[in-house]
């Protein structure tokens, strides 16, 4: 039948009612039947049906025509209409991302992000805003073999977007470590699927170093807490002044004591002499939740009345609401060390100069540069104690030290000493301070405190890390 232009305009704008009105249009019923049997759209999407009046009008008129003041445009069937999605469907998007992590392929993970995504990672200071930089981050992160679980989450759904925010926990398959973090995902519908447009991951508040203010006088006052514990003659009271874990290098012992039992035993031996100390010279450094007091103290031995001077270093950390001793080094005065060297029973004993002590770090750093865990482990003595930066497990033999560096060397670390304080004795020395690492695999830069104790190997006269 013949229709006026005005009637066609009405039919095109009337929606599905117009389809019913023009039932005599050839092929309409067949097209509606095909649309009903079409493959369903992905969740959250409605694709306009092929038999709608708008689609029909588009097929009749390719391009755009104007009838009076009314425009008829060919509709785009490539832009789906978003319908309401459920919270469970949004939560399932995390599983898609987590499954991508499980592949170990950074390219697959990066493809879970939208074209103009923003990733603010947990362990990098660099925002990632494109495919290449997101992939670069996961190149390093996937070496830890992470798998995540959402512990708590809150979901918000909007028009074409959704948000999932809460707390997740990762198990690192490479090390067995478990790490909690806060997360926010914002998803958008892009190219017929939900993608991550914004991903922010941050450490838990208790994992953030919130500086505990302390003055230099208060740092010096911490010695009195330890000294008062000595005065009780109770080795348990003294041992409780130490952090978990700690290292104690005792004036009259060759033992490095990193455990509570050994510290208690050493304190017990000291208490037999009923010693009380006085600080003669003090030099204080203060950092974020740590401080150091180093200088010279003098002990009066109550049992004999003897007075003994020694050099000391206390490093304190803020733990469980109070300042504890994380590192305690006590050594004889230089005049007491150097004079016996030529007259001692071991005339071959060596006392290194400061520059030689500092140069020992380069031997270890050069071993790191080889990326060979055996080369690094060989820098340690036969009876070592390694308390690593990124592991809670003390390493006390060759195999456990090598196992630690197998993972650590994947980051391609290279270190530089920023501050150094050395102490030397016959066939041993110590270097402690602050160093900085640049990780070649990620470009990250990390500062840390360090303490190296070196001893001279009796077999080959080399200096090893004890």
How would you describe the overall organization of this protein?
With 466 residues, this protein is α+β, with helices and mostly antiparallel strands. The chain is built from 14 helices and 19 strands. It has helices at 5-13, 16-21, 28-36, 53-60, 87-102, 106-110, 131-141, 216-231, 235-239, 260-272, 334-338, 354-369, 373-377, 398-408; strands at 45-46, 64-67, 70-73, 81-82, 113-120, 146-157, 161-172, 178-190, 193-203, 242-249, 256-257, 275-287, 290-301, 307-319, 322-332, 413-425, 428-439, 445-456, 463-465. It has a 6-stranded mixed β-sheet. It has a 5-stranded mixed β-sheet with strand order 5-9-8-7-6, covered by helices on one side. Strands 16-17-18-19 form a 4-stranded antiparallel β-sheet. α1 (5-13) packs across α4 (53-60). The longest helix is centred in the first third of the chain and has 16 residues, at 87-102.
